[in-house]
Amino acid sequence: MAIVVPMEAGGGRRRLRVASPSTQEAIGEVPVTSPEEVRAAVARARAAQPAWAATPFAERAAIMRRAAELLRAQQDHYLGVCMRDTGRSRFETLMMEIFPALDSLTYYAKNAERILTDRRPGLHLLRTKKLLITYRPLGVVAIITPWNGPFILGLNPTVQALMAGNAVVLKPSEVTPFAGALVGELLAAAGLPDGLLQVMHGDGTTGAALVDAGVDKVSFTGSVATGRKVGEACGRSLIPCTLELGGKDAMIVCADADVERAAGGAVFGGFFNAGQFCCGTERVYVARAIADDFIARVVAKASALRQGTEGEYDVGPMIWPRQLETIERHMVDALARGARVLCGGKRNTAVGELFYEPTVLVDVTHDMLIMQEETFGPILPIVVVDDDEQAIRLANDSLYGLSGTVWSKDEARAVAIARRLDTGSVCINESSITYGACEAPFGGRKHSGVGQVNGEVGLKGYCHAQPIVIDRFGPKEEQVWYPYTAAKEKTLQKVIRWVWGTPIGRWMS
Ligand code: NAD
Predict the structure, then answer these.
(1) E-strand spans in 92-177?
(2) Is 345 left (phi over 0), alpha (psi -120 to 50) or beta?
(3) pTM score, two decimals?
C-alpha cells in the first residue's frame, strides 16, 4: 500500500494523504503548496530577514535556548509525531531526533557569535592597509529534506541558517510531513518572529518550485538523483547549494580489531533506522584471520534483533514500498550471483507489510547491485579480505563517498587507513556518528555530495565572508596609481627584489 497518496481537493488544490509505515493506517493529510504560494513565502521571508540580521546574536540564541527547553519539556509530543511518521522505536527516535536536536539548538546558540564575529587578520604584505572580514547572512535559505531523519535533518540546518541571520523556507519530505513540520512548530513556540521560518508541504514539484523561487542558497539533503536536479537548477540560477546525498558506506575490520565490539558496531551500523541511514554500514570488509568469529557474532546479534510496531523493539519498518522494492531487487541479484543468506533474507509480514528481516549476507562479490548501489535497508553484506590493502581498494571502489568506519586496536593503523578512504568522513572503532558531532564538518565526496554542513564550516556556509580592506595612513596618492612611469617601475622592482630576493623579505612575505 502506498504511504503517500496524492488527492484532488476543492479548488484544484492537491493534497497528500499520509499513512503509517507500521500499520498502513491513515495519519492525516497535508495540502500541497503551489509554486505561487512558495514564491509568496520567499517574499515574506525576504521582508522579515533584514530585521533578524540586525538582531543581536544573544537574542537569536535566546530563542534557540527556549526551543531546547520546550523540546525537552514536551518531548513526548515530538517523539510521538516522529514515531508515528516513521514507525521507529521510541528509543531510536529519542536518540536520532530529539537528542541531536537539543544539541544543535544549544551548540549553535552558544557558538554562533564566536564563529561569525568579525575578524581582523593582519596583512602579511600590504602593511599600509588593514583587513576586516565580516560574515553577512545570505538572505533567504531553502532547506529541502528527506524522510529518514525528518525532524533533525530539518531542524539542524534551520538552526544554523537562522543563527547566521537568514530567513528559512523549509520543504520537508512528503513522506514524513508532520515530523518535518515540528521544526516550524517548535521555533514558533519559542518566539521566532513571523516570516523567518515557513514550512511548505508538498512533493518534488514544491521542492523544485522552491529552488526556483529566488532564494539565496539551497541546503538539500536527499538522493543522488534529486540532488543532481537541484544542483543543476542552482547552477542555472547561480546560487550556492550544499548537496548531502546518498552513501554506500564501507566498514573495514582489521585482523587486530576487538571482534566483539566490531560485531556490535556492524549490527548497529547496518540495522540502525532499519538500514535507512545515509551513513549506515552497507558493506563490510573483514580480515580473514578473524572472519569466522566476527561473522558468527554478527549473525547471533542480528538474529536477536526484535521488530515491532509498539512497546520495546529494535528495528522498525521500511518507510514505504519503494524501499522494499530496492531491497528485494538487490537481494534477488545477489542470490542469483551466489550470495548466501546467513540470517533474515525476507519480509517479516508477521509484524507488518513494510518490515524486512535484518539480513546478513556472505559470498558477496563486487559486481553485485548490493555492493554497488545504495540499498538503504537492513542488509549487511560481508566480504572476507586478505589484508588492509585489499579492504581499502574495495572500499574505495564505489561511486559513493559519504562516510566509513575502520576497526582496529591500533589507532595509528586505523588512522592511516582512514586517511586513504575517499569519503567525506571516517569513524574509528565506532559507527558513523560524524553528523552528530557539531564541530565536525560533514559532507560527502564523489556522488555522495557537494559541500559540507555543520560546525564552523556549516555556519559560515550560510554567510558571505565579506572582506573589507581599509587604507591606514591616507597618503594623497599610491605608488601604483597613474601615471605609470619608468621611475615607478624601478621602485616596484626594488620592492620585488627586497621582498622575494632577501631573507628578511622572504620571511615577511
Ligand atoms: P529524495 O531525493 O527522493 O527526496 C528528498 C527531498 O527532495 C524531498 O523533500 C522531496 O520532496 C524533494 N524533491 C524531490 N524532487 C525534487 C526536485 N526536483 N527539486 C527539489 N526537491 C525535490 O530523497 P529521499 O528518498 O527522501 O531520501 C533518501 C535519500 O537521502 C537517501 O539516498 C539518503 O542516503 C539520503 N540522505 C543523505 C543524507 C546526508 O546527509 N548525506 C542524510 C539523510 C538522507
Answers:
(1) 129-137, 140-144, 167-171
(2) left
(3) 0.97
Alpha carbon of 497 to ligand 1 centroid (Å): 56
Quote the pLDDT of residue 20. Answer: 96
Contact between residue 141 and residue 453 where contact means Cβ atoms under 8 Å apart: no
Residue 68: inside a domain: yes
Nearest CA to 254 out of 207, 304, 289, 204 is that of 289
pLDDT band for position 508 (50/70/90)?
A: confident
CB 414 within 8 A of CB 429: yes
What whole-number distance in Å separates Cα of residue 357 and Cα of residue 344? 5
Please report, in angstroms and rounded to a whole number, the separation of the first and last CA atoms in the chain: 68
Cα 327 from Cα 274, distance rounded (Å): 11
- As given in the structure block, the three cell numbers for residue 340 are 548466501
CA of 271 to the centre of ligand 1 (A): 20
Around ligand 1, the residues with Cβ closer than 6 Å are: 144-149, 153, 171, 173-174, 203-204, 207-208, 211, 221-223, 226, 229-230, 244-247, 278, 374, 376, 402, 444, 449
Looking at the CA of residue 173, tell me the nearest atom of ligand 1.
9
Dump pLDDT digits (tens) for 10-42.
667 889 999 999 999 999 999 999 999 999 999
R_g of the chain computed on alpha carbons: 26
Of ligand 1's listed atoms, the one at least distance from the Cα of 224 is 32
DSSP letters, 56-86, are -HHHHHHHHHHHHHHHHHTHHHHHHHHHHHH
Q: Is the dihedral of CA 270, 271, 272, 273 positive or negative?
A: positive
Residue 41 backbone zone (phi > 0: left; psi -120 to 50: alpha; other: beta): alpha
- Work out how many domains the chain is built from and give that number: 3
Provide the domain limits for residue 487.
475-508
The answer to whether residue 244 is catalytic is yes
CA of 226 to the centre of ligand 1 (A): 6
State the closest ligand 1 atom to the C-alpha of 435, by its place in the atom list counted from 1. Answer: 40
Is 232 an active-site residue?
no
Calpha distance 273→148 (Å, rounded): 8
2: pLDDT confidence band, cut at 50, 70 and 90?
Answer: low
Is the domain of 94 the same as that of 114? yes
d(CA 6, CA 219): 26
Shared domain for 147 and 123, answered yes or no, is: yes
Same domain, 142 and 179: yes
Looking at the domain assignment, is residue 418 inside a domain?
yes
